[in-house]
TrEMBL record:
Domain Acyl-CoA dehydrogenase/oxidase C-terminal: 241-388
GO molecular function, one term: glutaryl-CoA dehydrogenase activity
Domain of life of the organism encoding this protein: Bacteria
Key word Transit peptide present: yes
Protein name: glutaryl-CoA dehydrogenase (ETF)
Top EC class for this record: oxidoreductase
Domain Acyl-CoA dehydrogenase/oxidase N-terminal as annotated: residue spans: 19-132
One GO BP annotation of this record: fatty-acyl-CoA biosynthetic process
Catalytic reactions of this protein: glutaryl-CoA + oxidized [electron-transfer flavoprotein] + 2 H(+) = (2E)-butenoyl-CoA + reduced [electron-transfer flavoprotein] + CO2
Keyword hit for Mitochondrion: no
Protein's organism: Nocardioides albidus
């Protein structure tokens, strides 16, 4: 028997494309996850709760992972590629942990950083970067998912001089909502869709948690209910109007998913390879059988291609040349292939593949949510179809 290569999951030598600083970022996140997440996450998933989520947020903040690709206001100001590598390592532990970081940094913090007033930025971003305040992002509604222009949440001027607003409506499937200190809420107004920074202790704001999930169980998911919420005019984002605001935030989050999905894939592929080398059947490890090797190789091929795509998009984002349809390309491909890798890994583990003693079924379940959120397969397909043909087929 010839010895396997030293890095069986990096047959293409992708590590050679990373700088020493990028590898150091990856190693730091991997160590934090190994110490703070991996020993506990299967139990969190099984119980449907994260123990001490605020403590975990502060630890993530102390490592500079919250809003890490943003500049100033206590944010780390690191590269898009650094952020992508962090997302990969976080999701290798669990999609729910990556979602916590992604919603905090790429949705709530990015929205405030990009569209908020200076008052918004100085009040919230340093605390959010440190993990001392948790944010959520309210866009999706019970009847408005892929079609956010149909949102029913409404903000109306409540005084003749325009000094305050009244918000009414509901948001659904909102990560972090029931533990958040601040919510970025998008609402219809007479001036078009606008964003609002809403402290969650504002009267009329509530965030009931959504129960009975079978995916992303190590993640806090809830509603946002706005019942006569009164806000000063200063709570509104001052300039942005229409869907440009929320869609710019979603593009940031989708970029992180391009990388994160490959983390779930890598974890499942590694579990399958380890199991195949240890599981003895018919007198030898099942990794010595041709059909098992074919599964392992096919999984590795798709993982390698997905990682190369993520790295390419990261370099483009750092260069300022990344286009929205390219993010759709990455999100559509990498999540779809990651799910297939997890399913194939499950077959190698046999019945053990459905046990939480191994990460595979947990990753597979989580990725069913990741496939849908931040743009469904159908929507990303149509984005790419329009980019290819010039014809918008959304309606």
């Amino acid at each position: 028997m010839t010895n396997p290569v030293a890095a069986p999951l990096d047959l293409a030598g992708i590590d050679d494309l990373l700088s020493d600083d990028e590898k150091a970022v990856r190693a730091s996140v991997r160590q934090l996850c190994a110490e703070r997440v991996d020993p506990y996450v299967a139990d969190w998933f099984e119980r449907g709760t994260i123990d001490d989520i605020r403590g975990l947020a502060k630890e993530l903040g102390s490592l500079g992972l919250l809003g890490m690709h943003l500049e100033g206001y206590g944010c780390a100001g690191m590269s898009a590629t650094d952020y992508g590598l962090a997302c990969l390592e976080l999701e290798a532990s669990d999609s729910g942990i990556r979602s916590l970081v992604s919603v905090q940094g790429s949705l709530a913090m990015f929205a405030i950083w990009r569209w908020g007033s200076e008052e918004h930025r100085t009040e919230w971003l340093p605390r959010m970067a440190a993990g001392e305040a948790i944010g959520c992002f309210g866009l999706t509604e019970p009847d408005a998912g892929s079609d956010p222009a149909s949102m029913r949440t409404r903000a109306r001027r409540t005084s003749g001089d325009g000094s305050d607003w009244g918000l009414d409506g509901r948001k659904m499937w909102i990560t972090n909502s029931s533990v958040a200190d601040v919510a970025v809420v998008w609402a219809q107004t007479d001036e078009g869709v606008r964003g609002f920074v809403v402290p969650t202790d504002t009267p009329g704001f509530s965030a009931p948690e959504i129960k009975h999930k079978q995916s992303l169980r190590a993640s806090v998911t809830g509603e946002i209910v706005l019942d006569g919420v009164r806000l000063p005019d200063s709570a509104a984002f001052p300039e942005v109007r229409g869907l440009k605001g929320p869609l710019s935030c979603l593009n940031e989050a989708r970029y992180g998913i391009v990388w994160g999905a490959m983390g779930a894939a890598r974890s499942s592929l590694q579990a399958a390879l380890d199991y195949a080398n240890q599981r003895i059947q018919f007198g030898k490890p099942i990794s010595a059988f041709q059909l098992t090797q074919q599964k392992l190789v096919d999984m590795n091929l798709e993982y390698t291609k997905g990682l190369l795509l993520a790295l390419h998009l990261g370099r483009r984002k750092d260069a300022g040349t990344l286009r929205p349809e390219q993010v759709s390309l990455g999100k559509l491909n990498n999540v779809r292939e990651a799910i297939e890798i997890c399913r194939t890994a499950r077959t190698i583990l046999g019945a053990n593949g459905i046990s939480l003693e191994y990460p595979v079924i947990r990753h597979a379940n989580n990725l069913e949510s990741v496939l849908t959120y931040e743009g469904t397969v159908e929507m990303h397909t149509l984005v790419l179809g329009q980019a290819m043909t010039g014809h918008a087929a959304f309606r």
